[in-house]
Write a structure and sequence with these properties.
Elements: E1 3-14, E2 19-20, E3 27-28, E4 33-36, E5 38-42, E6 45-50, E7 53-56, E8 75-79, H1 80-90, E9 103-105, H2 113-116, E10 120-123, E11 129-138, H3 143-149, H4 157-167, E12 174-178, E13 185-188, E14 192-195
Parallel strand pairs: 8-9
Antiparallel strand pairs: 1-4, 1-9, 1-14, 2-3, 5-6, 5-13, 6-7, 8-12, 10-11, 10-14, 11-12
């Protein structure tokens, strides 16, 4: 039997890349994140209605600036408990969803890849299975996101290294893909996420 993690409390898409500028001065700017009421998940990625029109998430394989050419990170998922830990370390500016995951799940503890590697199950509010998510992998933190966590202040190299380590192992979320046996699915806030 699947273990319920919690309900989905936020759905969002990333309309365009969040890292701006040239290396080594790139910054993470979360402005292209749009909160939405529903997501349509297919094998190609995620779409949602934004400002009255269908919009591709930047990780959709048909997005002109796709960040998912190999099809392995079309869906991202995060947990409210992880944001609580990030805020304790970095401050209140790390709002729920600022790491740009598509699906944010209410949770009361930290989850690592060891617990989620077998996949996740999306359930409706009545606990009927809607779809499975497979190929779960850590969304490793990038330096620009770490800079955002530090409010774009310059920090010592050892502090940067410690911060990147803290944000890794799923702290800033996980990537996954729609299960082989799952068809297109509409996901809503209030749907549940369970460990497969």
């Amino acid at each position: 039997m699947a273990t319920i993690i919690g309900p989905i409390v936020r759905l969002q898409i990333q309309r365009s890349p969040l890292k701006v500028g040239e290396k080594p001065h790139r910054k993470y700017i979360p402005d292209p994140i749009a909160s939405v009421e529903t997501l349509l998940i297919t094998r190609l990625g995620i779409t949602a209605r934004v400002d009255g029109g269908e919009t591709f998430d930047v990780h959709h394989r048909a997005h002109p600036s796709t960040k998912n050419a190999d099809g392995r990170n079309g869906i991202s998922i995060g947990f409210t408990s992880h944001y609580a830990e990030m805020r304790r370390r970095f401050g209140p500016h790390l709002w729920d969803g600022c790491a740009a995951e598509n699906i944010l799940v209410a949770s009361n503890r930290r989850f690592g890849l060891d617990e989620l590697a077998g996949g996740l199950i999306l359930l409706d509010a009545q606990r009927c299975e809607k779809a499975r998510l497979e190929q779960v992998d850590v969304a490793h933190p990038c330096r620009p996101f770490c800079g955002f966590a530090h409010e774009h202040r310059t920090v010592e190299p050892d502090v940067l290294k410690e911060s990147l380590a803290f944000l890794d192992d799923g702290m800033r979320g996980f990537y996954c893909s729609l299960g082989r046996d799952s068809g297109p699915v509409v996901v809503r806030c209030g749907d549940l996420v369970a460990v497969a």
